[in-house]
Amino acid sequence: SPIAPPADEDRENIAENYLNRLYGLPKQTSSDTERRSSAMSLRLKEMQQFFGLKVTGKLNDETVEVMKKPRCGVPDIAA
Amino acid sequence: YSTFAGDYKWKKHDLTYRIENYTPDMSVAEVDDSIKKALQVWADVTPLRFTRIYTGTADIMISFVVGDHRDGYPFDGPNGFLAHAFPPYEGLGGDAHFDDDETFLYRSPEGYNLFLVAAHEFGHSLGLEHSQDPGALMYPTYVYRDVDTFSLPQDDVNGIQSLYGKNPDI
User: B103-161 pLDDT, tens per residue?
Assistant: First the structure.
């Protein structure tokens, strides 16, 4: 039977897709992981601030739960 | 509330809408009624008036689509993104797209209530961005509300009236 992907990888994918679509996170084009991580943290903070979550810039359960909710596809913050 | 940065508002108060196609989840009459009522939510508190047309290009073109529907914002299958709409401008502006991979329903709290989703999207069609007020209709995430007792939350009233003013008939 197929092996389920690790939960962390799942969460990362959810967050990447969400922030890419709604918070202008650029699609991954380079292998500069530090730069990528910094850009993601910045967008996470914007998202957490918008939803009144604890602003950490880190992916936590509370943030992922909000990302999983059904919603409108219009970005929350103007590009 | 929040409005789109720039001058994204209709320069006229008489707007047209057209329903281009239908979801199989509901009857045609139910879709028509849901859309009409969703627009009326905004007309009740502003000078905006909506007229349905059946051919040609309306200010607000309404369609049910799935996946990549060629506007640069593909839908993602069931759940996730339910719909989106574009702020007022010529062409695609004002148009509202509903993800037909969702189950849209007329009155049931199961699935997604088309009236509620549409009323939110038409807020974008008229120039409102997402609100950070969790009680607002323009909050980004879907929350079921009793459609029989629905009234537009004050945050949304303030937002739309900041763009178009109050309903002169009230």
Answer: 999 988 889 999 999 999 999 999 999 999 999 999 999 999 999 999 999 999 999 99
Host H or E run for residue B83: strand B81-85
CB contact under 8 A, A52 and B132: yes
Contacts of A51 in chain B (CB under 8 A): 132
Burial of A31 (0-12, 13-18, 19+ CB in 10 A): exposed
User: What is the residue whose two structure tokens read 């709409």?
Assistant: B85
Report the length, in residues, of chain A.
79
**Mean pLDDT, all residues of chain B:** 96
Distance separating alpha carbons of residues B152 and B44, to the nearest angstrom: 9
Distance CA A58, CA A46 (A): 11
Which among B81, B140, B142 has the least Cβ separation from residue A76?
B140
Asked if the Cβ–Cβ distance from A72 to B82 is below 8 Å, we say yes
Asked if pLDDT for residue A2 goes beyond 70, the answer is: no
